[in-house]
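Entry type: protein chain
Record version: 2
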Amino acid sequence: MLAKNDVEEMREFCSALHPASTADFMVGLTPDEIWSILRNIDPATRSDIFSYFDEDLQVQIFESAPRDEIADFIPYLPSDDRVDILDEVEPKIVDEILPMVPAEDQIDIQNLSAYPEDSCGAEMSTDYVRLREDMTFRQALDEISRQSQTLETLNYLYVIDADGKLVGLVSAKELLRHISKPDTPLSDYMKRDVITVNANQDREVAASLVRKYDFTAIPVVDDESKMLGIITHDDVLDAVVEEMAEDAHLAAGVAPLEDPYLSTSLWQLARSRFMWLAILLFGAISTAFILNWFEDINHQIFWLATFLPMIVSTGGNSGGQSATLVVTALATGQITLGDWFRILRREVLMGLILGAAMGLCGLLNVLIIMWPKLLSGEISFVRLLVVPATVLLVVFSSNMTGALLPLLFKKLGWDPALMSNPFVAGISDTLGTLIYMALAMIFLIGF
């Protein structure tokens, strides 16, 4: 097909299957070969197939194909997708392409590029149905037919006033329901109480509302309620997957990767991991300082070090569980900062329950290991109680730390996922060691 430059065969190949399947078959080709096929098919089909390529391949095609052909192709791409691609293309190449793009699309690209990353404005598409309030259903259908070539979705039809403000919406279902009454004004059936997001809000707000109300799209407005665009459910899904990946990286103490794992160089992987490992390493120095500070006690009670790993790991695990539960609840909208007192109350009780239960388990471990020395009278039972007492306090304190620090991070405007399991474990290690040594000193003096 490529060797013969058979245009008809190329068109048949691109139209025979679903665009996603066609894109899969073309992945093994070079960017130049892919464009040799795409350039010979209609723009709508070309855009559909192109949308299923990985972003890396899309960028390669943009950079290798003739500049004028890419400029002609850009207007057919969804407005949000083309901005994302151009952000990754070499700036020099973008400067060559943009002057050849129609002025209207240039302005749209510049406007969308101005929004902060991860904001609703950066995620929105400007391809949506615009209708006037004074239109009838017949006029609305004519307008939809005129605009349909560049639309993201037809599920919702947005009604805009003369100032560009969103005044209502009509669902496609409502439009079809009244198709037999073509002269009925839209204003008689449009919904005026429309749920929107502000362009400067975090995209997680849009994701939360789409999930809560089961929308397929949500309108984006500015501070004056002027309609700017829409965020569709597929864009929300992409954003959620990206946020989940970032949170998973942070939860493991790894800087989020900008590129796919296999596309990231070993140097970049090492650098993203080293930074957090170094921070955790220096944080662990506090544990060494505490042990050195209580050196005399360690010499006098020689068996203390035996149970230190058990204590700090139990505290780290407990704190990590609490942090994971709270961070997940925050991310899914199950809790807000206003629930801090209820969370505190629950975690106090949970810390005491788990601490007591784990303390009993710790006492059992101590008795199993130290039973011979206990029988010989070398060690008193009362002194052994320092271990279960420490476990109780460590689990309680770690539980509180893991639950409340994500709320503090959220309050400060930081990502709660930064309070990841490694960081909670590091804090728990320090707290656990300090509590253990302090209690050991008390037991040594008192008993």
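Comment: The chain has 21 helices and six strands.
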